[in-house]
Amino acid sequence: MAEVPISWFLTLSAVLFALGVAGFLFRRSIITVFMSIELMLNAVNLSFVTFSYQLKQVSGHLFTFFVMVVAAAEAAVGLAIILTVFKNRSTLNIDDVDSMKN
Amino acid sequence: MDAFIVITLIKLAVIAFVLLTAVAYLQWVERKVIAHIQVRPGPYRVGPHGLLQPLADVIKLITKEDMMPSYVNRPIYLFAPFLAVCMALLSIAVIPFGPTIVVAGYRTWMQLTDINIGVLFILAVSSMGVYGIAFAGWASNNKYALLGGLRSSAQMISYELPMALAIASPLLVSNTLSLRELVATQRGSIIHWNIIHGGQIVAFLIFIIAAFAETNRVPFDLPEAENELVAGFHTEYSSMKFASFFMAEYLNMVTVSAMATLLFLGGWEPLWPVRFGSNYLPSVIFVIAALTALYHGAHPAHKLDKYTLTGFGVIFLILAAIFAAPIVQSWLLPLFWFCAKTGGILFAFMWIRGTLPRFRYDQLMGFAWKFLFPVAMLNLLVTSFVVAWVS
Amino acid sequence: MQLWLIPILPLAGFLINGLFGRRFSKGLVSVFAVGSVVLSFAWVLKTVLALGDLNTAYSEHYFTWIQSGAFTVNCDFSIDRLTAVMLFVVTGIGSLIHIYSVGYMAHEHGPNHGGYYRFMAYLNLFMFFMLVLVLAANYLVLFVGWEGVGLCSYLLIGFYFTKKFATDAGNKAFIVNRIGDFGFSLAMFYIVKTFGSLDFGTVFSRAPGVSEGVLTLIGLLLLVGATGKSAQIPLYVWLPDAMAGPTPVSALIHAATMVTAGVYMTARSWVIYTHAPAAMETIAVIGIATAFFAATIGIAQNDIKKVFAYSTVSQLGYMFVGVGVGAFSAGIYHLVTHAFFKALLFLGSGAVIHSLSGEQDLRNMGGLRKKIPWTFWTMACAWVAISGIPPFSGFFSKDAILLAAYHHAPWIYWLGTLTAGITAFYVSRAMFLAFFGDYRGHEHHIHESPPVMMVPLTILALLSLGGGFLFKIPTFLGTLFPSLEESEDFTLMAISVAAGFLGIFIAYFMYVARPAMADSIASSLKGLYTLVYNKYFVDELYDATVVKPVVEGSRAVLWKVVDVGVIDGVANGIGSRSRDIGGVLRLLQSGNIRSYAAWVLAGSVAVIVALGVAGGLR
Amino acid sequence: MDVVLFLIFAIIAVVAAINVVVQTHPISSAISLIGVMGSLAVLYLLLGAEFIAAAQVIVYAGAVMVLFIFVIMLLNAGTEIKRGRSLMVQLLGVPLLIAFLGLVAYFVERIYPQSVGVRFGGFTGGTAQAVGRALFTTYLLPFEVTSLLILIAIIGAIVLGRKEMD
C-alpha cells in the first residue's frame, strides 16, 4: 500500500495558504476576507499536524488546538467588529473602511 | 478484509432499513400517543388501528408536486434538506446497539463502526446538523424562513454548550470517549448506571433538556412556531424535501435518545442482574401483550378487531417464544434492553409534546445561558472534583 | 540567635505604619511604632544576655549579596562588645524617644494631615537602618545602614515639608553628607583593592601586613565619611540647620545615634588607624578643632536648639579626640554618656518648646524654673553632666578623653579643658536664660508636658546622673581595644573640673547676677561677637567658594552648552529626523487593508528568499 | 488506498478553497470553506490526529462557521460590489503570490525526501488521551492563558455587540 509523501501534505498546506492570501488580497467583502484568514489558519494547522506526524510528537496537535481556540476567539470578536462596522457605516466593502489612512 | 466489508454492508442495510421504518412508525406512534393524551383515537382508517398510515403518508409525500419557489438560491435550497438528513443519519453510524456477537462464524459488533472518539464524533456531526436548517432558512428567500433559520441556529449553538458539558460528566466518570467502553463501565444493574452510580442525575436532566432544544422539539420548537413564523425554516419546502426535514428531526430524536441511553442508562445492560431472571422479562411482557390482544380479539370493539388483534396476539406469542430461546438470547436481549430504554426516552419526547406549552424566544435563550449553562458547568466541576478525589 | 530580628522589628513597624497608618487611629500607630522598638530593645537584651561575655564576635550569615569572581559580599550580622554597647544605646534611647514622640507629636495635623503616622514610620525606618549599620559585619552592609540613616535624616529634617527652611535644611544635610559618602565610597574601593574583601574580620586581620601609606590613605578617606556623618570640620555645617526637624528627631538622630555613627565607624576600624598614626593625628586635630570652634559659636546663639546643636558638634569633636589619641574606649564612653545627657537636653528643650507652644528663642524665655519645675530639674541633671561636674556621667567620659589626650599631646588637653569651660559656660547660659530671671515671653498658658514625655525625661535624667559610674564602658571594652598606660592624675582632673565650675560661675555672674553685663561685653567686643554670632561666616564662605561656583558653572556650561546644545540638540534632532522619515513612510499608509496585506506578503517572500539564500532551509 | 484518500480529499480541499476565493457571494464562500474544513478533518484522521479532527469539525465547522453564516444571514450580505480596483494590489499581489507558492513548494520538495511517507495508523499519539495529557501537563500554562484569552474575547464581543454602542 503506497504511502503518501509528507511533502504532499505540506504542499497542499502551502496551496491552501496561498489561496487564503489570494482571497485576502483580491476580495472586497470583509466577511470573505475574514474567511480567507480562517483558510490560512487551517492551512497552517495542516502543516502543524503533518510535522507532528513526521516527528512522532503530539506537540503539533497542541499548537493546532491553540490555533483553533484563538481562531474561535478571533471569530467572535472579529464578527462583532464586522457587525459594528456595518451598523455604523452600512458597508461591508473593505476598501470603504479606510479612515486610518495618512 | 472482504468479510469485514460484506458484514459492514449487511449491517448497513439492516440498520438503514430498520431505522427508516422505525422513523416512519415513530411518527405514527407519536400521533397515537398525542391522540390518546388528548382522548381521541388518532389515525385509525388506514390499516388496522391506522397501522398503514405511515405508508400512506410516504406515498402522499412522494407523489406530491415538488414546488420550487422562485427567487430561491437554488443549489443551497436543494442542498439543505439533503444535508439535514445526512447529518442525522451519520451519527447513527457510531452508536452501538449491543455487545459483540457471533453470526455465522464471524465476530462482529452490533454497531456500524466503533471509533475511539465516538462521543466527539456525535458531537461534531450534531454540530453540523444546524447547517441544514440555517441554509434552508436562508435559501428560501422568505422572511419567516430566514427568522426560523436564524432562531434555530442560535438555539442549537446555545444548547450545544450545556449538552457538551452534560456529556462530559459521565465521560469523566467512565474515563473513556468510546461508546462501547462507556457501556462496559456501566455493566451490571441499574445501580451501576452512570445516572445512579456516577451521580449524574443532574447531567442527565440537563442532557435531556438540551436534547429537546437541539431537536427543536416542544417546548423548544421555536424555529417552527406556527403562530409566529408560519412553519419556520421549512415554510417553502414541500413534498419529499419537506419529508426530509421531518425525517431528520425524528432521526435526531432517535440519536439523542440512544445517546442518553448509552451515556446515562447503561446502554444494553439489563435493568437488574441476569441471575435474578431479567432474561425472561421480554418473554413475560410479550406473553402479557399477547394475552391482552387475544382477550380483546375475543371481545372485539370493532368489526375487524376480531382478526387483527388475534393475529397480533399470535405474533406476540411467537415473539415471546423467540425471546425465550437461548440461542438468540445473547444478541436479542441486549437489543431489547437498548430499544426499551431508547423507546422510553422517545415516549417522554412525545409525552412532553402533548402536555407542555412553548417557551418564548428570549426565555429560551435566557434559560440556556443563565440557568442550564451554569448548572452544567457546576455539575462538571463537582464531578471532576469527585472523580479526582476517588481516583 | 536571630540577630536579624533586631532590625527587622522596626522595619515591620515601618511597613505596617507606612502602608496602613493612614487608616489607623493614633493609638494603633503608637502601639506599632513604640512596640516594635521596645521589642527590639528586649531582643537586644535577651541576645546579649544569652551570648554571655562576648569576648569574641558572634556572627550570623544570611545570604550572599554580591558574588563576582573571587570577590564576595555577604549579608552578615555580627555582634561583639562594641556592637552590644551601640545596640543598647540605639534601642534604649530610641525606645525612650519613641515614647516621648507619642506625646510630642500628638498634635501633629494641619497642613500635613496624617503627619503622625508618617513621622512614626520614618522614625522606625531610621531605627532599622541604624541597627543595620551597627550590626553590619562588613563595610558594605554598614554603608547600607549609613546611607539609610542619611535618608531618614533627610526625610525627618524636611518633615515639615510645607516650610521652605525645613526642606532647605534637609537638602543641605543630604548634599553635605554626599561629600562624606563620596569619601567613604572611595575608602571602600581602596579597601577592596587592597584586601580583596570588605569583611571586618578579613580586613583587620590582614591590615598589619599592609604598608602604612595605604592604610593612612584608607583611614583619611574613611575620616572624610566620618566628618560628614558626624558633623566635623569642615562638613559640620548641616547639623545646626538640621534642627528644623521635630525635636525628638534632633534628640535621636542628630544627637544620640546617627551623628555618632562616624565615631562608631572610626572605632570599629581601629586596627587600620592604629597602623596609620598620621590618620589618627588628623582625627585628633580635627576633633579638638571642631570641639573648640563649635563651642565658641554656641556662646552666641539665641535659639535654644541651635545652642545644643553646636554643643553636639563640639561634643562629637571630643569623641573624635578620644578616638584620635588612641583612647577608643574613652571615645565610645563619651558617646554613651553624651547620648544620655544630650538626648535629655534636646528632649528637655523640646518639653520647654512644647510648654511655650513653639517658642525657641532664649530671649523670650526666662523664669521657667517655677513654671515647669519637673522639666527644669531633669534638664539640670543634663546640665551638670555636660559641664563635667563629678560624679555625674559627663565627668567620667570627658575626663577619660582629656587624660588620654594629655598623654598624647598636652596642647590638646589644654585646648580641651578650655573647651570644657566654654561648654559649661554656654550650657549654663542657656539654662539661666531659660529658667532663671523673669519671664520675657508672651505665652501665658505655660504648662508641664504630659507624663508620656516626662517619663523618658526622668529616665534619661537618672542615666545622665548615674550613667558614668553605672556603665564602666572602658572596662567593658577593655578586651576589645588596645589598652593605654593611663595613670590617674588628680591634678589634671581637678583642672578640668575647675574649668567646668568656672564656666558655670561666669555664666551665673553674667546672666543672673548682672544681667546687663552680657550685652556690655558683647558691645565692647563687637567685632568678635559679630564673628561668633554669625558662626564665623562659614556658611557664607562655603556659599562663595563652593556653592556659587557650582551653581554658576552649571548654569553657564551644563545648562547653556551641554543641555541646550548637546542633549536638546540630539533629542530634537532625532525627533525631527524621525518625522522626516515618517513623512516618507506615511505614503505607504494608504488605509487600504489589502495593500497592507500585499506588503506583508512581500515581506514573507523576502524572508523565505533570505532563508533560502542563507541556507536556513536545508 | 491512503494515496487515493489523500488525493480525493486534497482535491476537494483545493477546489473548495478556490471556490472560497472566486465565489462572489459570501454564503457560497462560507459553504466552500466548510468543505475545506471537512476535508482537512479527514486528512487529520489520515495523519493520526483523531482528536484534532473531531475538534476541527466541532470548533471550526460547528461553531466558527456557524457564526459566519449567522452574521451573513443577519447582515443579509449580498454579492460584493466591484468598483475602484486597487491597481497596486493586483500588480504586487499576483507575482508575489506566485513567487510565494513557488518558493514554498520548491523548498518543501527539496527538504522533504519522497521516501518519508504518511500511512494511516503510522502515528497513534494523537488520541484524545494523549492530547489531553500533554495539554494538562506540558502545555498547562498556554492552556490557562488561552482560557483567559477566550474570556477577554467574550467580553470584547459582548461590549462590541451591545446596543448602546455610541
Written overview of the protein:
- The complex is a heterotetramer of chains A (102), B (391), C (618) and D (166).
- Chain A is mainly α and 102 residues long.
- Chain A is 76% helix and 2% strand.
- In chain A, helix 1 (6-26) runs antiparallel to helix 2 (30-55) and helix 2 (30-55) packs antiparallel against helix 3 (59-89).
- The mean pLDDT of chain A is 84.
- Chain C has 618 residues and is mainly alpha-helical.
- Chain D folds into two domains: 2-126, Up-down Bundle (Four Helix Bundle (Hemerythrin (Met), subunit A)); 127-166.
- The model of chain D has no long low-confidence stretch (mean pLDDT 83).
- In chain D, helix 1 (2-22) runs antiparallel to helix 2 (26-46).
- Chains in contact: A-C, A-D, B-D, C-D.
- Chains A and D meet through strand 1, helix 1, helix 2 and helix 3 of A and helix 1, helix 2, helix 3, helix 4 and strand 1 of D.
- Strand 1 (4-5) of chain A pairs antiparallel with strand 1 (117-118) of chain D, so a sheet runs across the interface.
Sheet with most strands of chain A: none
Number of helices of chain A: 3
Helix-strand sequence of chain A: EHHH
* Average residue pLDDT of chain B: 81
Q: What are the main properties of this structure?
A:
heterotetramer; A: mainly alpha; 3 helices; 2% strand; D: 166 residues; mainly alpha; Four Helix Bundle (Hemerythrin (Met), subunit A); 2 domains; 6 helices; 75% helix; globular
Topology (elements, then pairings):
The complex is a heterotetramer of chains A (102), B (391), C (618) and D (166).
Chain B: H1 2-37, H2 53-63, H3 74-92, E1 98-103, E2 106-110, H4 118-139, H5 143-174, H6 179-184, H7 201-214, H8 226-229, H9 239-264, H10 281-298, H11 305-324, H12 326-355, H13 361-390
Antiparallel strand pairs in B: 1-2
Helix pairs in contact in B: 1-2, 1-9, 1-12, 2-9, 3-4, 3-9, 4-5, 5-7, 5-13, 7-9, 7-13, 9-12, 10-11
Chain C: H1 5-20, H2 26-51, E1 58-68, E2 71-79, H3 81-104, H4 115-135, H5 139-157, H6 164-195, H7 200-206, H8 212-229, H9 238-241, H10 247-256, H11 261-268, H12 270-274, H13 277-299, H14 304-324, H15 328-355, H16 368-371, H17 373-386, H18 393-408, H19 410-435, H20 451-470, H21 473-477, H22 490-513, H23 515-524, H24 526-533, H25 538-585, H26 593-614
Antiparallel strand pairs in C: 1-2
Chain D: H1 2-22, H2 26-46, H3 50-75, H4 87-111, E1 117-118, H5 128-136, H6 140-161
Helix pairs in contact in D: 1-2, 2-3
Quick summary:
The complex is a heterotetramer of chains A (102), B (391), C (618) and D (166). By secondary structure, chain C is mainly α.
